Each structure stands twice: as C-alpha cells, then as structure tokens.
Amino acid sequence: MRRFDWLARIEQLDPAVDYEEIARITGTIEFPWDVNQALSFALFRTYAVPSIGRLLADTGEFTERVQKRYDDTALILDAVSEHGLGSAQGRDAVRRMNQMHGSYAISNGDMLYVLSTFVVTPIRWVDQFGWRKLVEKEKVAATNYYRELGRLMGMKDIPATYQEFGAYLDAYEAEHFAFDAGARAVADSTLQLFTTFPPNNYAPAALIKRFSYGLMDDPLRAAFRYPKLSKVEQAFSRRLVWLRGRFVRMLPPRREPKFARQLPNVRSYPNGYDIPALGTFPRGCPVPHAEAPAPEPARQEGVLPDVQRQ
Prior knowledge:
Order of helices and strands: HHHHHHHHHHHHHH
Number of strands: 0
Shape: globular
Largest sheet: none
Number of domains: 1
C-alpha cells in the first residue's frame, strides 16, 4: 500500500451515508494514536465544567477506580466504533451509556458539551499534530457519526455541522469553565493515571505532568489552577508531538485497524469482557452475573456474546 491509499478510499465515500466507515478509517487506521490521545484530552476537558467535574468526583469512580473507569469508557466507545451503531455490540454499548447517564440529573447542555468535545478535540488535535491534516469529508463524517450517537442517547438540539459544534464548545467553555475542588481531584487522578501509561511510565511522573500541562490551553489550565507555563515550555510540548507526526508520515501506512481494546493503556480485563457489564451501576447492576457465561479470551478480540438482561 502507498501512504495515501486510505485517503483515496475516503474520497470515494459519501460522509452523509458512509460516515461510520470513514470515521473508522480515520480513527483506527490513519490516526489511532492521535485520536486516542485527543479523546483522552476531550474527556479531561469536561472536568473543567464544575457541574460535570463535581459529579464525577462525587461518584468516586475517577478518584478511587480511575483505571477501570478509563478502560470502561474506552471500551464502550470502542465497541460502537468497531462494530457499528446498528450492531448488537453497538446497541449494547449505547444502552450502557444511557443506563449510566440516566442515573443522574445531567443537563442537555452538559451532554451536548461532552459530545462536542468528542467531535471537535480530535479534529483540532489531528490538524495540529497529525501526519496530515483531515480532509473535509473526514470532518463531516465525524460530525455525522457523533450526531447519530447523540440522537441515540436522547440529546436535543444537536449541532448540525462541525463548525456549529466548535462554536458550541468554545462558547460553553467560556461561560462554564471554573475551578472546583472536586473537579481538580478528578483531573489530578486522571493525570496520575496518564503517567503510568507506556512509554510515560519510563519517565518521572512530575515530568510527564509538566509535559501534559504544556499541551493544555490557558483556559483549561486556569480552570484547574495548574501552574502557568512559559511560552517556551508550551512550545516544547507541542513541538515534540508535532515532530512525532512528521516521523509517522514517513512510515508505511497501517494495514489493519487498531482499536482501544488493543492498547496497553487498557488493563482492567486481561481475560476478556462483556459490554453490558462495563461501566458503573449506581442503581444496581442489570446483568445477572451468576447466570452470565464466564468471559472467554475471544471476547477481547471483539467477539462479545450477549448476556441475559433483566
């Protein structure tokens, strides 16, 4: 394969119809590392909205079980991406998200903001750090993909275009970003987790955190009251990630997709997992675990059989 063969495939597709295929190529073949990093930062951004960060702090999931919570989020989103919104696994994953979110009084505005971070942050990240910039079809496909996900999650007044998502995100952050002690605890716990991911674990944790501060914009750092950095420090962090993109550009293209379940960062389920059992169950787990079959290694390869539900 040649370096731009996947892009040629994308250009043959229609983002109004083939948005899942385009999003899968972009996220798991062309830019798997970048999109994973960007989605991690997208989730991190949401903590700076106190109504979101405080709720996450109150549940204790991101401070007491941060590795599992990170893994569950990645694997649930991964199932939708890999198998499709209309597949059995995709429906299980969306149902799991709706069950978790339905246990709390979360405003439609906050839900739309989180959705906006998933649309906007990866696109801005890849355009800044990726081995190439995204084409318009990729941006439209990502927008349509998350619009459909938002619809299945019952959100209202979903932005129609990438530009509208970007405007919504920027306006929401300008209005709502603020310091909250609980949100800061969630952010600190997540940053500490990031320091344990390969290859970060080979460097001092303090250095990895400082490097991460350099990738944050000023409003995000200010919301958490993280240290102010000089322009030189910020440029250094960004330049290193940009240089990685230049190196990747010289590599041969990836032939097979790389999903979140294949990442070394995801460590909670070495023996496999069932999608309906992922995540939190604040009102009780709907999966009767005593009747569920024992996980098999094949499930970690994406073959996830149904389990009985109440």
